[in-house]
């Protein structure tokens, strides 16, 4: 259970980072 919990935490962090990157890309596209 501990291993799966750590994996899920890493997945959540990765998803948040991806969402931030997508938001930044959208901002640059709109400004361009």
Helix content: over 70%
Largest sheet: none
Distance between the termini: 47 Å
Q: Structural class of the secondary elements?
A: mainly alpha
Q: N-to-C SSE series?
A: H
- Rounded to the nearest angstrom, the radius of gyration is 14 Å
Mean of pLDDT: 88
Structure write-up:
With 32 residues, this protein is mainly alpha-helical. The chain is 94% helix and 0% strand. It has one helix at 2-31. The longest helix is centred in the middle third of the chain and has 30 residues, at 2-31. The radius of gyration is 14 Å and the shape is rod-shaped.
Keywords:
single chain, mainly alpha
Layout of strands and helices, then pairs:
Blueprint: H1 2-31
Give a nutshell description of this structure.
The chain is an all-alpha fold and 32 residues long.
